[in-house]
């Protein structure tokens, strides 16, 4: 698999995002971002590629489809086994090591007294849930950051271990992501 780690960042809550992106970039991580996440990071002067650079497909349907693509999910779900590595190589897909994702504020939106059904429907996150669950499912290889309060602990371990996140932290992060999507 690829020697340069890749982080996919696609967040609604951008708390701590720039510090995380800067630290990952400085440690040699290749950053991929979707929509507003990539725009915010790029505007801060941090190098990031758009997810569409990897998928070769533009965001579409008013932003409803950004990350739902085999180049993304193959990179997240690939295990460190020969057949998966071969599939990635055969399809020109790079493994994704870190997924940073949180969801649209559905509960907050529907609790507003003037919330319409149309408003509620637009806050149903499909791609984000898929990213969270895919990364959590493959947490043996992928770290999933779904809560900005975990960024500092993750970065500390990342930097102290030269990018090798221990099972304990990966397990806790995966559990948090599963709890968000259950």
Lateral strand order in the biggest sheet: 3-2-1-4-5
Helix content: 40-55%
Helix-strand sequence:
EHEHEHHHEHHHEHH
Strand content: 5-15%
Distance between the termini: 31 Å
Question: Biggest sheet: strands, sense, closure?
Answer: 5 strands, parallel
Q: Outline, from the CA principal axes?
A: globular
How large, in whole angstroms, is the Cα Rg?
16 Å
Instruction: List the uncertain runs.
Output: none
Task: Provide a quick synopsis of the model.
The chain is an alpha/beta fold. It is 48% helix and 10% strand.
Q: What would you say this structure looks like, in words?
A:
- By secondary structure, this protein is α/β, with parallel strands linked by helices.
- Helices cover 48% and strands 10% of the residues.
- It has 10 helices and 5 strands, in the order βαβαβαααβαααβαα.
- It has a 5-stranded parallel beta sheet, sandwiched between helices.
- The protein is globular.
- The model has no long low-confidence stretch (mean pLDDT 87).
List keywords for this structure.
182 residues, alpha/beta, 5-stranded parallel sheet, 48% helix, 10% strand, globular
Q: Topology, please?
A:
Blueprint: E1 6-10, H1 17-26, E2 30-33, H2 35-43, E3 49-50, H3 51-55, H4 70-77, H5 82-90, E4 98-101, H6 106-110, H7 117-122, H8 127-137, E5 143-145, H9 151-160, H10 167-181
Parallel strand pairs: 1-2, 1-4, 2-3, 4-5
Helix pairs in contact: 8-10
């Amino acid at each position: 698999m690829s020697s340069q780690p890749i982080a996919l960042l696609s967040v609604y809550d951008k708390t701590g995002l720039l510090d995380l992106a800067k630290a990952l970039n400085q440690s040699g991580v290749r950053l991929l971002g979707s929509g507003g996440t990539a725009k915010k990071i790029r505007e801060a002067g941090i190098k990031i590629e758009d997810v569409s650079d990897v998928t070769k497909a533009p965001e579409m349907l008013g932003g409803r489809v950004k990350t739902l693509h085999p180049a993304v999910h193959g990179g997240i779900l690939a295990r460190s086994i020969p057949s998966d590595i071969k599939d990635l190589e055969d399809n020109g897909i790079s493994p994704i090591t870190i997924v940073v994702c949180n969801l649209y504020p559905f509960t907050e939106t529907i609790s507003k007294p003037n919330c319409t059904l149309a408003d509620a429907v637009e806050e149903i996150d499909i791609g984000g849930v898929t990213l969270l669950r895919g990364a959590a499912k493959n947490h043996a290889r992928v770290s999933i950051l779904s809560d900005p309060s975990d960024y500092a602990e993750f970065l500390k371990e990342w930097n102290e271990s030269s990018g090798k996140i221990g099972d304990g932290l990966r397990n806790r992060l995966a559990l948090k992501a599963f709890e968000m999507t259950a």
